[in-house]
Amino acid sequence: MTAPPATPPPTDAVGGYADAAVAVARAEGVLEAVSEELFRFRHALAGSEDLRRRLADADIPPERRQAALEEVLGSRAHPLTVAFLSFVVASGRARSLPAILDRVVEASAAAADKEVAEVRSATELDADQQRRLAEALGANLGRPVDVKVVVDPSVMGGLVARVGDTVIDGTVRHRLDQLREAL
């Protein structure tokens, strides 16, 4: 009697899509640019319930979902970014996009032997500010850091940096809350 064939382990679709995106972008020499665009798209997607719904609606033909995506990105994004997002949406994985995009950003940073620091600021940070912040966070963590900035007006002033499970809150709101508690 022969043993039944081994069942292959389930594939990690999120990781598979992310690994594919990183491999292609790295091969084309555009990993940093594509990763940054996918990071920004991830946050745009989080802020638009209408876009999330349109991209994930199985009742809408894939071509129309892809057209909605291309309408949002237009010619502002790298063709590889648009092609990757279009492929994921056409494959019916739009609901997994946030997780896929997070994995792409993490894998991109890991490929450069860095940690990802998601920084929330009330205003955009210029290149010099981002460089200095990356140096300070890297010195604090003992590892190089790739700073990804999210403009968030609710921050009011200062910054919130999240690196993995570590959160550094230097916002005005946080300081006011501390003062309120002290009083």
Q: What is the CATH class of the largest domain?
A: Mainly Alpha
> What is the radius of gyration computed over CA atoms, rounded to a whole number of angstroms?
19 Å
Query: How many DSSP-defined strands?
Result: 4
Strand percentage lies at 5-15%
What is the CATH fold-level name of the largest domain? Peroxidase, domain 1
> Low-confidence runs (pLDDT<50, min 5 residues)?
1-11
How many helices? The count is: 8
In one word, what is the shape? globular
Short description:
This protein is of the alpha+beta class and 183 residues long. Helix content is 57%, strand content 13%.
Explain what this protein looks like in three dimensions.
By secondary structure, this protein is α+β, with helices and mostly antiparallel strands. The chain folds into 2 domains: 13-112, Peroxidase, domain 1, CATH 1.10.520; 114-183, no CATH class. The chain contains 8 helices and 4 strands. The chain has helices spanning 13-27, 31-46, 49-56, 62-73, 79-90, 97-111, 127-141, 172-182, and strands at 115-121, 145-151, 159-163, 166-169. It has a 4-stranded mixed sheet, sandwiched between helices. Helix 1 (13-27) packs across helix 2 (31-46), helix 1 (13-27) packs across helix 6 (97-111) and helix 3 (49-56) runs antiparallel to helix 4 (62-73). It is globular.
